[in-house]
Amino acid sequence: MNNHHPESSRDRAGQRRWLAHPALSVVIAVVWLLLQGSLDLVHLLWAAILGLVLPWLVHGFIGAGSRPRAPGAALKLAFTVLWDILVANLAVARIVLNPASAPQPAWVRVPYTLTEPRGVALLATIITNTPGTVSCVVDEARREILVHALDAPHPQAIVDDIARRYERPLKEIFG
Q: Where are the domains of the chain?
């Protein structure tokens, strides 16, 4: 007897399904609770509703969920990025608030060897979210990201840091 249900084939074909992105659901719920600053029942219910409904609504835009191949590397990368954002915020504040500062802005071409499109997108996102740098163009043909740096006295050092701190872990995570 065939126990094949049409819903299960649609799930595998990329159709919307509940909890297709469980990590995103948790992140949305936690962020909602943090924004509310409360664990009241009404906020817990809204967190659960938003955590279920939003990923379901945007599933067509973000595609099927996947698990990182190296969750430890993903966690380490997350802490590295958060630390770098904190340090970069202080560096940018020092540049902006110090009238004697003389930043050396530059356009820097950052080559990448990532092959997973989500890894490349995440690399560009990390660069953009780190204050003082903005990824402007991902050139897939040249396999490089054009980055504008607020202060780049040594552009090659920026390239080396991005490769070591972000791209290397992303290659481990995405393979």
A: 6-62, 71-174
Strands 106-111 and 144-149: antiparallel
With b for 16 or more beta-carbon neighbours within 10 A and e for fewer, the 32-56 pattern comes to bbeeeeeeeeebeeebeeebeebbb
CA dihedral sign of residues 146, 123, 127, 159:
negative
Strand order in the sheet with 106-111: 106-111, 144-149, 133-139
pLDDT of residue 23: 78
| pLDDT tens digits for range 2-15 | 444 444 434 444 45
The one-character DSSP state at 165 is: I
pTM over 0.85: no
**Stated length of the chain:** 175
Return the bridge partners of 107, or none.
148
Q: How far apart are CA 129 and CA 34, in angstroms?
A: 20
The Cα 120–Cα 112 span in angstroms is 8
